[in-house]
TrEMBL record:
<dbReference type="Pfam" id="PF02627">
    <property type="entry name" value="CMD"/>
</dbReference>
<keyword id="KW-0812">Transmembrane</keyword>
<keyword id="KW-1133">Transmembrane helix</keyword>
<dbReference type="InterPro" id="IPR029032">
    <property type="entry name" value="AhpD-like"/>
</dbReference>
<dbReference type="InterPro" id="IPR003779">
    <property type="entry name" value="CMD-like"/>
</dbReference>
<dbReference type="GO" id="GO:0051920">
    <property type="term" value="F:peroxiredoxin activity"/>
</dbReference>
<protein>
    <submittedName>
        <fullName>Alkyl hydroperoxide reductase AhpD</fullName>
    </submittedName>
</protein>
<feature type="domain" description="Carboxymuconolactone decarboxylase-like">
    <location>
        <begin position="14"/>
        <end position="95"/>
    </location>
</feature>
<feature type="transmembrane region" description="Helical">
    <location>
        <begin position="12"/>
        <end position="32"/>
    </location>
</feature>
<keyword id="KW-0472">Membrane</keyword>
Length: 151
């Protein structure tokens, strides 16, 4: 019989949960479009196989005005017409920054340069912080087998 997993580590260590919440709030309040951040969150969570992250990302994307087509097809954003050039740049950066170990040059200049054409320095910082927070939370949820829909 497998050993029982710990509950959400951010709940076990409340100060860590508070820090993640504060960082999430800082990113959300930094002025980048909430729809774009939610689509990025959704895509990173899909890559990481994080059920709660996918459910949260989809709900947040809808809340911020993403279309049904965008939410349904974000995993195939390259092959669909439903994303702007800015969204495509953010999703490419999200994928590269999430899959750091998958290639020798994890965030190639081509990906960075396209993102830098659409986002200024502060917006890139916000996007990277958002991607980092998503990946951190995914990396807490997946090993502890957190389920979508649990409080």
């Amino acid at each position: 019989m497998p050993t029982e997993r710990v509950p959400d580590p951010a709940m076990v260590i409340p100060a860590a949960g508070s820090a993640l919440t504060a960082l999430t709030a800082a990113v959300a309040g930094a002025g980048l479009d909430g729809r774009l951040l939610a689509l990025s969150h959704l895509r990173a969570s899909q890559i990481n196989g994080c059920g709660p992250g996918v459910a949260d990302g989809a709900a947040r994307a809808r809340h911020h005005g993403a279309t049904t087509n965008q939410v349904d097809a974000v995993a195939a954003w390259r092959e669909t017409p439903w994303f702007s050039d800015e969204e495509r740049a953010a999703l490419a950066l999200t994928e590269a920054a999430t899959r750091l170990a998958d290639r020798p040059d994890p965030v190639p200049d081509a990906v960075w340069d396209v993102a830098a054409k659409h986002f200024d320095q502060k917006e890139l910082a916000v996007l990277l912080l958002s991607i980092a927070v998503t990946n951190a939370v995914n990396r807490l949820d997946v090993p502890t087998r957190q389920q979508a829909g649990n409080p």
